[in-house]
Amino acid sequence: MNLFLDSFWRAAVYCVRPRVIALSVLPLVLIVLLTMVTGYFFWDMALDQVRVWIDSFPYLDQVWQWLESVGAGKLKAVLAPLLVVFAVTPLIVVISMLTVALMMTPALVNLVAANRFAGLEVRQGGGLASSLAWSLFSTLLAALALLVSVPLWLLPPLVLLIPPLIWGWLTYRVMAFDALAKHASKEERRLLFKRHGTWLLLMGVICGYLGASPSVVWAMGAGFAPAFVFLVPMAIWIYTLVFAFASLWFTHYCLGALHALRQQTNAQAEVPASAPAAQEVTPVPLVGGPSSQTQPSP
Question: Is the pTM of this model over 0.90?
Fold first, then answer.
């Protein structure tokens, strides 16, 4: 618990550093450009497909008539953009997290290590290729889990539990691996994942709930085109900062746990060096020999 809370407040403090904010600009620019280009080519097509799908339910006509009678007829025009936004939000979240993991986490790990763990030995348990493979494999597993669990989302309590658990698991897998890739060996990383898996998963779930908050800002621009241009980049920047905070949180926690593990290992290795002293030798006179000669007592 101490390491959990200590790493949390340290990550929050680091997030307001100018260097961290500056590091978030490049991922923000790339994600915004990708979103804008994709929206330019596919937004209208996606809206048309969603409207056709909505109109395929005849019983919704009565719903629209009732909404118009109560003065909420404009909701029909906003529904299709909202559905498209909510459909692409998971993709934006994953892209934001992977972009932060690849473009920001190495610099953040170096920043934390230089400030707090300057003497921590670098054992290079994972490189860029292994990080990419680990992230893509974890993302595929999370996407499969999301697809399989969709029917359970119809139950109100589970829709608030299952997706954050899956996002939390993915965040924990990606962020913790990248936080330890440079300094920990493979054996140390596996051991830390085993010892601290529950806390790391809890951190991932908390970050998953934090990552859901920008969806409100993202959705606000769905029904109003001029605001959409400004609110969507703002939401994506919030995504970027949330995952930057997650990266810092996992970095502080994982490097602190690694430092404690090595201290424990070194302490255990020094125990044989301080073994019990040799058995005391008691002088006894030898029979038939000079009294000054001694032999070990039995």
Answer: no
